[in-house]
Amino acid sequence: MAAVEIISTRLQTEDDWMERAACKGLTHLFFPTAAERPQARERREATARQVCASCSVRSTCREFARDQHEYGFWGGESEDERHAAGFRLIAPIGVRARSAG
């Protein structure tokens, strides 16, 4: 098997959990729109948290977001929650918003 085939197979296998995620097709709940207001963010994340609560791959999703320094709401965690847990981003949303004001 060629190296490219091995890498491709490995990547497909590692991301298989995404196909089983409860959030599939609900991207609008997990990533903010431009200039999202704090109240809208709270409502959006509360709805996203409900979707995550019933998801069979929530812990895998959370670990992926922490390891990959993802933005958005993943595995039942917001960027701010990952940041507070010690998983640093270059500029999490909350930090960007606080420094802009």
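[next item in queue]
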Amino acid sequence: MTIRRMDNVLIVVDDLEAVIAFFVELGLELEGQGPLDWRGAERVIGLDDVRQDIAMLRVPDGPGRVELAKFHRPEAITPEPRDAPANTLGLRRIMFAVDDIEEVVARLLAHGAELVGEIVQYENVYRLCYVRGPEGIVVGLAEELD
């Protein structure tokens, strides 16, 4: 038995439209969005009386997806601290490979994101950085050097 692929990563958000706009600006494509009406989801996630809206975004020409969920019921729980540092236990970021890290960072900053540290070069292999977007979501960007 082998893993076939990583299908998606789920991010629970409060402002669904702002987070969709952030990921679209990053370069993901909105596949669809709307209420999740499947009652089987409650059994999968272990919560009762769930009402949520979801959006699925995909990497263009790639297998990766980001799923966003806004819970109306039960209400989402805010972690503390909200903008946790990189050494906090748990999922800290999603990393995307990009063609031009400077151009992507400039577009995201114009959308209200902030650079977490700085753009740095790892040997002669990558230029890397972290960007914090809406709701404290951190994405890593990696530009492979030729």
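[queue empty]
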